[in-house]
Amino acid sequence: KPGLYLVGTPIGNLEDITLRxxxxxxxxxxxxSEDTRHSGKLLRHYNIRTPLLSYHKFNESQREQRVLRRxxxxxxxxxxxxxxxPGISDPGAELAKLCVDENIPVIPIPGPCAVVAALxxxxxxxxxxxxVGFLSKHGPxxxxxxxxxxxxxxxxxxxxxxxxFSQFLEESSLLFGDSRYIRLIIFIVSLALGWSKRCVMxxxxxKIHEEMSVPNQFWRGTLGEAKVRFLNQQPKGEMTLLIExxxxxxxxxxxxxxxxxxxxxxxxx
Length: 269
Ligand code: SAM
Known about the structure:
There is one protein chain. This protein is α/β, with parallel strands linked by helices. Helices cover 38% and strands 18% of the residues. It has ten helices and ten strands. Strand 6, helix 6 and strand 7 form a beta-alpha-beta unit. S-adenosylmethionine binds next to helix 5, strand 7, strand 8 and strand 10.
């Protein structure tokens, strides 16, 4: 069926691709790909010879009209990114929106996605989470976002470029307050109370390196421990960082009995 197919591709291990994804990639008229050389490797591996057309954040707006025309002519257009799910911190959302506006079918072919893979194996709360993705490079918006994250009760998930990891760890001390002095006091108190936030670094998931056995792909500890461990020894490779939500607060939630008692007192006054 004609339409725009958003196909999930591996985030490391080439075997992580669905049968349906392979079938759609084979039968498409064109595959839009972020990096045609990179995608070429995947397609050659599966003997797929569908023509590729580059589609990345720098030519996205130029390409859109041409792609829409092809879709309106009834072609099957597939969009893939370098890794994972298109549109998730990758090009795709804008094209999907245009297609929706033009009543062109948009069909997801689900597959790998770093945020979901990391969360599912993290050991942190998966009921509710916030996917923050990449923080903006610098400035107040970056700081504001991080501070907002620190106050959220949900698990927070970040994509962190390797060269930004130390900066990220430094900045995450914002989670403990603003001024250095206050931060230090809060940090010590928080350690004493045991509410230093737990974090998980998921690195090079699904990739097969000699030194990267599956247990090594997940580092778990507190933010404080991560700083001690990694600040001067920057880990390499692709990283997804998860920080637990604000679970402990100093104000205790009253028990049912307490509530009833307090309500009773209020009513009797
Ligand atoms: N669209 C992709 C997805 O569905 O996850 C994300 C693309 S984004 C440009 C790339 C970022 O995803 C990396 O910087 C890293 O934070 C994360 N990532 C991708 N592959 C990963 C892997 N194998 N292990 C850990 N994180 C990964």
